[in-house]
């Protein structure tokens, strides 16, 4: 990956834009489901330029079935972690998503379809926000192998805390979200395209959403 910061002086502005997501998410505006996509796009264009932005979306180097296997291993890891948690605490209450009962609160099929469309787009949104964060940290740390994992770890911490409204952020949830984010980052590295982590994230969200609507 040969990314280069074109406008490093704009990093404070990009940081401010990304931090603003916290404020927006505390206010239930209708456009919130597009917010992370827009902020991620702005960050990528400001710091890396148009060519790097378009390069994110090039055809990936891995097969679809490789991406499905990543989805499988992430879900298996979640099941193992939740099983350990149940063994210690005796219940899964802390692992429940805030929308786990959405199926019963949306009685009309049209409402469920609209919610489903918004929720499914979150996979695209979040990858568009966190891959630029990952790349910025990676480049700032001089872009060696060690710095990739440090950047991936800190982007994972940010990813976990972005979900403060969806889960009760206790240690098991933070670890689960951190590992998921780092796995998605590795998918991007292997695939060399944002399409890879977007696909895996889409499959992860689809699994959760089908459970919530059940």
From TrEMBL:
Q: Which InterPro entries does this chain map to?
A: Rce1/LyrA-like_dom
Q: Which Pfam families match?
A: Rce1-like
Q: Which GO terms describe its molecular function?
A: metallopeptidase activity
Report keywords, A-Z: Hydrolase, Membrane, Metalloprotease, Protease, Transmembrane, Transmembrane helix
- Residues covered by the CAAX prenyl protease 2/Lysostaphin resistance protein A-like domain: 113-206
- Span-the-membrane segments of this chain are 31-52, 64-88, 113-141, 148-174
- Annotated family: Belongs to the UPF0177 family.
Protein name as catalogued: CPBP family intramembrane metalloprotease
Q: Which organism is it from?
A: Fructobacillus broussonetiae
